[in-house]
Amino acid sequence: MVISFAGIALIAWGPPNIAMCLTAVLLLLLGYALDSADGQLARLLGTGGPAGEWLDHVVDALRLPAFHLGVAVGLYLRPEAQTWTVGLAAGFALLASTWFIGQLLAEKLGPSHIEAPGGNAPAWVSFLKQPYDVSTTFFTILFLPWLEVFLLVYGALFIFTFAVACVSLWRKHAWLAQSASALPQREA
Asked: Which pLDDT score is estimated for 182?
């Protein structure tokens, strides 16, 4: 978490030059890799538990919206950036937060005996999902020195992520509704 937030702080308050962008992306990717590794390590060692899983989800729920808010601050501090660019980053933060909680709640509220949509997808689907993976989002920072290019890439990623999130959330809602209708009804 500390490493990720160091990268976010650089994006928010650092000069938008190539060195800052490379450093920020490396910090964000390192934080992301460590976040993935700690859960796997806990499972391998048998030291995982509810407190660790809770902490992992809380940090995940904070990191991505904070990243986009860091982008918003960085854009706000750039005199050549227009107001709408800050709104784009804030909208991305809202989208990230909504999608995360929607996915998490579907996992927690759905029946364990019925597989969630997309749960057993073929390997090639991973390549289709890469554009909206958080690591791809982090790589957009490499374009910050060239504001127009950054906004084109970041805006396109927002539109793509928004479309995928809408489909994903709709599928999860439909799955939960179908799962609920399959449960035996209680008598009043």
From this structure: 63
